[in-house]
Design brief:
This protein has 254 residues and is mainly beta. The chain contains 4 helices and 19 strands. The longest helix is centred in the C-terminal third of the chain and has 11 residues. It is globular and about 55 Å long.
């Protein structure tokens, strides 16, 4: 099932996407699905970020080759997490805004996990019970500020630095899902979830042992090697082959 969130005139609704048609829901998808009886064409609405999380929990250094390209020898023994603010979230087609404070902003293509219900201390073998589905994400990073600050809050937290979308897939096979990033049609990143150091169930269990997760919260699962700088005028596309493609233009922050 594909769950999307759309802008229809002045109305913001969740819906279920079938082909080019969206069956609108009467409320949110974190419970019983209640269609409101309306069906709209996807071309007649604007796709938004498929969820508005209370928090985005991102996992760093979860692909060995990315660790090496960042100058590390080996991944950390346990997941290394950081938070991105909810105000960093944007949807498909919305611009990534380059802040004046940075001269080196980079893309990071990632698989994102969307939590479906309130949970904490989830066992690994029960992780799937608390997941609503999966979407594409771009953990945009001001790399120069990351180096200067010695911590990642500012470098990862600017407005527009967490594109999500285009929808949530609820039933996917993540054993060898392909994660890619293209900039202006040129391939920059290519990896597989099979290369992740910590699997999705392990990450859900580990994060939920640290903090309570709420419906709609998002876990970013790390990025494969190949991160590179983006500039105003670029088009950045993140693809997870079992989900779809998320594309955002890049602009200078006004």
């Amino acid at each position: 099932m594909r769950i999307c969130r759309v802008a229809l005139d002045d109305d913001l609704r969740y819906g279920v996407l079938h082909g080019d048609a969206i069956a609108l829901l009467s409320s949110h998808p974190f419970g019983a699905f209640e269609p409101d009886g309306r069906v709209v064409r996807v071309d007649d609405v604007r796709l938004l970020a498929p969820v508005l999380p209370s928090k985005v929990v991102a996992v760093g250094r979860n692909y060995v080759e990315h660790v090496r390209e960042m100058g590390g020898d080996r991944p950390p023994a346990e997941p290394m997490i950081f938070l991105k603010p909810s105000t960093s979230v944007i949807g498909p087609g919305e611009p990534i805004c380059l802040p004046w404070q940075s001269e080196q902003v980079e893309h990071e293509a990632e698989l994102a996990v969307v939590i479906g219900r309130l949970c904490s201390d989830v066992p690994v073998d029960r992780a799937g019970d608390v997941v609503l589905g999966y979407t594409c994400a771009n953990d945009v990073t001001a790399r120069d500020l990351q180096r200067v600050d010695g911590q990642w809050g500012r470098a990862k937290g600017f407005d527009s630095f967490c594109p999500l979308g285009p929808w949530i897939e609820t039933d996917v096979d993540l054993d060898e899902a392909v994660v890619e990033c293209h900039v202006n049609g040129s391939l920059r990143q290519h990896g597989s979830t099979a290369d992740m150091v910590h699997s999705v169930p392990e990450l859900v269990a580990w994060v939920s042992s640290v903090m309570t997760l709420l419906p709609g919260d998002v876990i970013l699962t790390g990025t494969p090697a190949g991160v590179s700088a983006i500039a105003a005028g670029d088009q950045v596309s993140v693809t997870v082959d079992v989900i779809g493609t998320l594309t955002n233009p890049v602009v200078d922050r006004a």
